[in-house]
Amino acid sequence: MTECFAEILWARVDGPAKKWLERVWPGAGGRDAAPSSVQFRAAFAGCARRLRDLPLQAGDVRMLSDAGVIVGADWQLDNVARTALLLRALSLLPGEEQAAFVRQVYLRGDFREQAAVLQSLSFLPRPEQFLELAIDACRTNVLDVFEAIACENAYPAAMFPEAAFNPMVLKAIFLAVLVGRITDLGNRATPELKRMVVAFASERRAAGRAVPDDVDLIVNLDAA
Amino acid sequence: MKMFDHHIHMTSRTTDDYQAMADAGIVAIIEPAFWVGQPRTHVGAFEDYFLSLVGWERFRSKQFGIHHFCTIGLNPKEANNPDVADGVMELLPIYLEKESCVGVGEIGFDDQTAVETKHFEAQMQLAIDYELPVLIHTPHRDKKAGTERTIDLVKASGIDPGRVLIDHNNEETLAATLDSGCWAGHSIYPNTKMDEGRMATLVQQYGTERITINSAADWGVSDPLKVPKTVAAMREAGIAESDIETVVWHNPIAFFGQSGRLDLGADGGRPRVDQSELWEGNSVLRGQEAVVEPAE
Question: Which value does ipTM take for this structure?
Answer without folding.
Answer: 0.72
